[in-house]
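Budget justification note: compute hours in this period were largely spent on complex prediction jobs such as the one shown. Inputs:
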Amino acid sequence: MRITRRKYLATMAGTAAAVLSPAVLAKEVELSLYYPVAVGGPITKIIDGYAAAFEKENPGIKVRAIYAGTYQDTLVKSLTAFKSGEPPNIAVLLSTDMFTLIDEGAVDPFDDLVKSDADKAWLKSFYPAFMENSQTGGKTWGIPFQRSTIVMYWNKDAFKQAGLDPEKAPDNWDELVAFGRKLTKREGNATTQWGVQIPSTGFPYWLFQGLTTANNVRLMNQAGTETYFDKPEVIEALQFWVDLSRKYEIHPPGAVEWGTTPKDFFERKTAIMWTTTGNLTNVRKNAPFPFGVAMLPGHKGRGSPTGGGNFYFFRKMTPEQRAAAFKFVKWMTTPERAADWGIATGYVAVRPDAWETPAMKKYVADFPAAEVARDQLKFAVAELSTHDNQRVTKALNDGIQAALNGTKTPTQAMKDAQQESARILRPYR
Amino acid sequence: MNALRSRRSFVAALETGGAWLLAALWILPLLYAFWAAVHPSAYSASFVLDAPLTLDNFVRAWKAAPFARYFLNTFLLVTMILGVQFVLCTLAAYAFSRYAFLGHRLAFVLVLLQLMIMPDVLVVENYRTMSALGIVDTIPAIGLPYMASAFGIFLLRQTFKTVPRELDEAARVEGAGPIQILLKVYVPLAKPVYIAYGLVSVSYHWNNFLWPLIITNSVSTRPLTVGLQIFASSDQGIDWSVITAATLMTAAPLLIAFLLFQRQFVQSFMRAGIR
Amino acid sequence: MTLARDTLNENREEARPSSRRVPSAATGRMRRPAHVRRWDVHIHGWLLLLPAAVLLATFTHFPAVATVIDSFFSTPKGPRHSVFVGLDNYQAMISDPIFWRSLDNNLVYALSTIPLTIALAMTMALAVNRKLAGRGFMRMSFFTPTVMPMIAVANIWLFFYSPGYGLLDRLLALFGIPAHNWLGSEQTALACLIAVAVWKDAGFFMIFYLAALQQMPPQLAEAAAIEGASRWYFFRRVTFPLLMPTTLFVLINAIINSFRLVDHVIVMTRGGPNNTTSLLLFYIYEVGFKFWDTAYAASLTVVLLVLLAVLAVGQFTFFDRRIHYQ
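Corresponding output:
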């Protein structure tokens, strides 16, 4: 009822506008953009700045950015808004939510917009590793933007104090354990500094992929209909994570909070932390000691999952809005902008030619750590993403947390997670 | 006798000490938050007595998110709910206390049902209703489920029942209609109950979170609690000093009001006969 | 809910006079002014009730019924429409370990927060009610947490529980107890949430006890003192029984809170680690608004509604017998 009425009104308004003056219609296109950062973080300023610059260059298009908190919060908000009939036009959401968004019928692919040769070249300009989570069934559903990988940050002072070479990070699992043992400081039965900290709240599955990838195993198929949580290599990887805290005692026990991990690093509670490259600028600004950035340590292989967010186009846009939105997304991903964004935040500039821009070259020369994430892309794999993604990842997350807490053995935890995920995915086979 | 007295005073001292300890323990988390909020973030976790004091965290928090707008939203929300609650509950309570209308007992039981089945539990269905009405992400949508309050109706009904019939009759003889009687006789007599109920309602809705979280999407409707949560949760790492500053800021108006009017709060509760 | 109990009694008492009143309306017409005729009572009554009734029906009764109905249907998704599935959702629930975990957690949570909160509230009220030095400060410190939003409280406590440099670990370090990952450990996470809830609510309930204590006639205590009764004896035999109606009221509110409030779960743990802090309403929120399985969320809500109903009935029958009014 309501929708028909709204449609009716929209048609009426549209006709009236068209009759009165076609210019009116072309003049005001407003785009809403849901963005996953905490309101007021430094990133909001950057996005607001881009939006303003874009509006200036493209009069007649307004971009209204709405900051909705974490990725989780933003997804919930976007889908809630979609279900209530007023979805955002553009949203930056986890690349892994692609299947969920498709299944809900909430987003449209980009392909019909990509017509000119320039557009086709643009679509090919991104790192292939980032496109893995952006395309399925021959269509492109997401455009990489706020993308990241996991990297290892280390405290050079702590390394020096422990008698280690402050310029050399652990390169493989064995070194991680050996270094970690030296870096862990105890006073009586209290640990004052841990060797390494890998957070396990928020998205434990993502950090876990940093371990499984090094163990040469993938967690799901490309179609997002099958998972391999109970493969021996996966269990081995989880066993290693558990061993870090239980056997070697160089990693805090239990589930480690994602949000406070950088703070723990600044407070010298841990000498090494694993977290997103998106924290690079934060760490650079707040770490009270010299630090280094390195690729994740390898084992049988090496690598990290990609992570972070893509641009999605929600349904129910008018053709004018779609055209404007497409323009905006292209504008946001030019080599210059991608470079600027990477420099400002620490997220990985999403296309190779961004690294060739003068600004980026200068930045990298001053701050070589920034290159690590790019170089690691060679070894990057797609982040865990399946149909009914929220539930499947929850099954894996629960299993990881159970194992880290010692309530289940890694084998049991992964068997249970696989069983649950198989149950959830059955309808999609 | 002396021994008994000294034993008693010893026990009394012990009790006083215990009470003091409990009170200190209770205020500790707040003092801690206060410490983090007024010091630079480098000191948020280390207690150095000569750490520099600063209001910078509050300034940063205030500038970082549209807290002024959130305050306005919460203020509008709370006033709107309270206003409508007063009107609806007064009318309904009047009906229950002075009209033996058909089905009034069943109706009353149905009203009281809401004391157990609160809107907070029915979020999934209420969300659907709001979206069918097309009012998702509006301030009235946050308030609507709470406006007819069983607690308010019950409280006022109890009070209205204690109003002597003679006053009612006297007004009637003077030719006042039912609504006039309600306004001239009942409402003034129930003033302490209105105050007590108002305080409870304001603090409840100032602090309410889950439903507003679900039903709001934008800065122009978000109340403080939701704004604070979105401010505090971040995938890019947490700065405790700013977050505690924002936290104290959002709680401050209510906190100050209650500290100033503590006595009135307790007394109006006593007078309202909520025991 | 001295509330609801009172009402039942009153309804019982009222049943007679009011049923008498209707037939006697004809004879009583003489005394009533002209505008109150027989029908007017019904019409005016309903008109006065109408606005509240409409809202209550729309946002309490209708959704409660709709929840039950929805629980027998499947969730519409994309192109797939909602179809009748009978008891499928309930079957899924029975084999859903997270549901059982949440229910279990919720019971543990309720059974620990409620007695703790009530005992502390009573202790606080007794402490503040006496003429102790600094009782103004004491009352303030007990009461302040209750006027803060749960969201704010949870954020503060999140910091408080930070392993290593949080206040809790720092205090414990003074006694040589090593740092502990309070919210990240399955053994302690739920207890941490319980502590937050108790901290926040005890002061609120204290107010009700305080109000009751201040209404108790001082002669009772004087008489007891003359008789040489010990304070503990006096509390056990006089104060505590006299506080019983207040306890009942507080109890009902505490029970409702333990099923209604999940703000701190959302802020502090999001149900983790491994669902050890997932409460029923939090799970409903997660299923309803993260997984978008609204039908399953409806069946979970039905469980919560049934639980609340059973508790309500239980309270009436149990306490009706136990409590002596003043």
